[in-house]
Q: What sequence folds into this?
């Protein structure tokens, strides 16, 4: 009897453990770590040089304004700058460093006296500057005013292009007052010695028993001298929650990338920890990578999920596979479905539903009353549109946090996120949360914590975060802080013919590399005038940008925006109708091909597209082959392709004359600048 009771207690305990862990995924935030040495010389300004204020530092346009001063933060010297307001050019002190691709943190200390006191948009800052070699530079925020030593810092700057860069310390604008600099540093922030990323199960670590059962872990063993170990090997194990290894595999520990594959087919349902370790010659664990929790679960677990995605990154909405066509909107809230349907001036949900939109973000409703959101989701869901709630300001240190009236906000941001996730996910029209929008890497740890809280409280949802505005190259650092990554290239800023439309493809590739093609990407497409010189995208540009993202593997597109800055700001009713018609046309063309886009990629071409052309091959459910391709260059291009299998006929889906087909296998295709071709082969 006692034994039975104990067994029941253990069973209950086991059930509770599983219950508490509704989803898997990374068990902790894996920050980039292992800062390298300071790459700057005389970083504390202690060394003097003959005829110069400070050794190693070049003092630019006005060397006389710089002096080594005894008011030091460290040692006995700092570098003082004053008298800038009388100048015509902005003075900087700089050093040149040669960098390899990677992430770098730039920081330095400044002490100020009346700096920029009478000149508002002036101050001092530190920059990493690729000019004139590259049109690229990154700077800390500006500092001005009066105060003791404070840190200026820009962490985790992504450097993609190897070569010389200037580190500059100095003024922005021409501030009055005085400033002292000390202890400047630029260090490379390297990944851990053993870096691991879960490729599959790709959706929140959920290993559903009707899907593939091979757990795949991508790893990189660092190749720098500090990391080098002779005779080491990598051990990867799935451990049960009691700590016993249930499946183990070993790999050689040489530097470089490897993918571990563990067969979990024989494991019972439950929670497992996926552990990767670098093991030394004596059997000791030298390094342990970030662990992931893998939850093996029955397929029926998904029955109540609003959304999830499969091993090919296809999103399921309400249980059905879908190519995501999303729209950003902004509006007020109401308790009336009719008001949502009609919208302001007739531009509400009823108009939106003319397009094959299946997902929507309303950027202004992040703190709306719950009943108003429920009415909104009622109306959207009846139109086949799933809703992503904006929670990108649900952090206690965000200035907007205090505008949130939900009672749970008083208990802190973690409680708030769990409460909102639980409350809103009770509605079948809630697909998930919009968690970040063009933010720098500093915020990743808090977005990661929020992602975990939302995921645990609402297991069958998706968290979507969008990177851009100069931060997109930090994408690899975000890979575990979200479910779906977005990037928002907005290439149309100049008159026609001068815009790099292929930026959409480039951003998509940045995203694909960041998540190693193991998570969905939903790319944000420019549907607004960013500058007056560029204006609105034309219908053809909308089509080209959308298909560039699709050809690079995006499985969703979001258009910014139906609301503010976008369609809602078009004053002329006829122009507004025309712009909306453009988006309807482009999204309907995509929707018609949804079954093809959801199918597996197919090797339609023997060999690649070649040259400047990028291509995506598909075989539709009816066996018909499709080729989608675009020209990455702003000039004409031609390609001659060999088909993997012969075709009888080629059709251009956009109504153009089809390319010449010879011998049934050779296809000669002409592309205009940045042109997209959509071909069907029979
Ligand atoms: Ca010093």
A:
């Amino acid at each position: 009897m006692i034994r039975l009771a104990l067994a029941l207690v253990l069973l209950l305990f086991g059930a509770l453990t599983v219950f508490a862990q509704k989803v898997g995924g990374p068990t902790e935030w894996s920050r980039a770590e292992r800062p390298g040495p300071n790459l700057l010389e005389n970083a504390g300004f202690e060394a003097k040089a003959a005829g110069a204020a400070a050794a190693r530092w070049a003092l630019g346009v006005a060397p006389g304004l710089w002096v080594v001063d005894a008011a030091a933060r460290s040692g006995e010297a700092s570098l003082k700058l004053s008298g800038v307001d009388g100048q015509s050019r902005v003075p900087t002190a700089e050093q040149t460093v040669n960098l390899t691709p990677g992430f770098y943190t730039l920081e330095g200390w400044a002490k100020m006296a009346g700096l920029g006191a009478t000149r508002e948009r002036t101050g001092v800052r530190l920059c990493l500057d690729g000019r004139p070699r590259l049109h690229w530079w990154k700077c800390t925020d500006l500092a001005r005013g009066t105060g003791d030593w404070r840190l200026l810092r820009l962490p985790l700057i992504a450097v993609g292009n190897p070569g010389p860069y200037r580190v500059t310390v100095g003024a922005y604008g021409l501030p009055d007052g005085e400033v002292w600099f000390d202890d400047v540093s630029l260090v490379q922030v390297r990944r851990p010695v053993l870096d691991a990323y879960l490729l599959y199960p790709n959706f929140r670590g959920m290993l559903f028993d009707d899907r593939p059962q091979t757990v795949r872990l991508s790893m990189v063993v660092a190749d720098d001298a500090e990391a080098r170990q002779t005779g080491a090997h990598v051990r990867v194990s799935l451990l049960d929650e009691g700590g016993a290894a249930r499946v183990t595999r070993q790999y050689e520990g040489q530097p470089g990338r490897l993918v571990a594959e563990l067969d979990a087919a024989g494991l019972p349902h439950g929670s497992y920890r996926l552990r990767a370790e670098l093991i030394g010659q004596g059997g000791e664990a030298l390094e342990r990578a970030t662990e992931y929790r893998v939850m093996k679960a029955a397929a029926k677990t998904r029955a109540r999920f609003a959304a999830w995605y499969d091993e090919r990154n296809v999103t399921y909405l309400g249980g059905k596979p879908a190519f995501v066509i999303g729209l950003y909107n902004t509006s007020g809230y109401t308790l009336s479905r009719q008001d949502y349907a009609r919208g302001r001036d007739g531009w509400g949900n009823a108009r939106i539903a003319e397009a094959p939109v299946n997902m929507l973000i309303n950027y202004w409703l992040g703190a709306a009353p719950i009943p108003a959101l429920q009415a909104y989701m009622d109306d959207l869901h009846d139109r086949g549109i799933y809703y992503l709630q904006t929670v990108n300001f649900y952090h206690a240190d965000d200035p907007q946090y205090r505008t949130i009236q939900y009672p749970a906000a008083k208990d802190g941001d973690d409680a708030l996120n769990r409460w909102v996730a639980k409350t809103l996910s009770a509605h079948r029209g809630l697909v998930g949360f919009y968690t970040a929008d063009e933010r720098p890497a500093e915020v990743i740890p808090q977005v990661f914590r929020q992602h975990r809280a939302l995921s645990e409280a609402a297991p069958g949802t998706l968290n979507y975060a969008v990177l851009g505005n100069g931060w997109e190259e930090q994408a690899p650092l975000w890979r575990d802080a979200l479910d779906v990554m977005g990037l928002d290239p907005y290439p149309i800023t100049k008159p026609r013919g001068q815009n790099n439309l292929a930026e959409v493809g480039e951003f998509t590739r940045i995203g694909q590399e960041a998540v190693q093609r193991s998570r969905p990407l939903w790319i944000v497409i420019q549907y607004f005038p960013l500058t007056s010189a560029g204006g609105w995208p034309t219908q053809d540009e909308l089509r080209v940008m959308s298909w560039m993202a699709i050809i690079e593997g995006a499985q969703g597109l979001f258009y910014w925006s139906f609301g503010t800055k976008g369609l809602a700001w078009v004053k002329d009713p006829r122009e507004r109708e025309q712009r909306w018609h453009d988006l309807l046309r482009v999204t309907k063309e995509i929707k018609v091909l949804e079954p093809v886009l959801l199918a597996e990629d197919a090797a339609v071409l023997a060999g690649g597209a070649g040259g400047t052309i990028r291509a995506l091959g598909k075989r539709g459910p009816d066996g018909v082959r499709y080729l989608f391709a675009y020209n990455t260059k702003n000039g004409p291009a031609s390609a001659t392709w060999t088909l993997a299998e012969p075709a009888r006929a080629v059709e251009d889906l956009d109504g153009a004359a089809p390319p010449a087909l010879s011998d049934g296998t050779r296809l000669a295709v002409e592309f205009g600048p940045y042109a997209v071709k959509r071909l069907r082969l029979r």
Summary: Residues 192-300 form a domain with the Immunoglobulin-like fold (CATH 2.60.40.2550). The chain has four domains: 63-189, 192-300, 318-597, 599-681. Residues 44-46, 72, 74-75, 77-78, 182 surround calcium ion (CB under 6 Å).
